[in-house]
Amino acid sequence: MVFAEFAREHSVIYAVHAPLYRKRTAEIIEIGxxxxxxxxASARTNCSALRQELETTMARAGIDLWVxxxxxxxxxxxxxxxxxxxxxxxxxxxGMPAITLxxxxxxxxxxxxxxxxxxxxxxxxx
Length: 126
Known about the structure:
Strand content: 15-25%
Strand order of the largest sheet: 1-3-2
Radius of gyration: 18 Å
Largest sheet: 3 strands, antiparallel
Helix content: 40-55%
Distance between the termini: 30 Å
């Protein structure tokens, strides 16, 4: 979905300036161009459904905030990567705001974090 939206957003500029794009950016656009409008609409519907499911679960449990690990482990060494994004993908997919705060250090001295995901507004009837 992200690649498809990125490709659509850059379609006019990319058509004229494709050689100026970085290799990975051009790859993302080319992948995104292959996603049909129907596939994109289905993905967006899935996002909305996941958000509704999470909000309903939160309302039933009487909670306003999810607290989860921000990653599967400590940050990777170096400045070339920020780590595995799997722990924030559900929240991103659902369009829910999330923030990660430092929560200590791993044995190797690299940071660990906790992720906080907020329910901004209750749906009607909650």
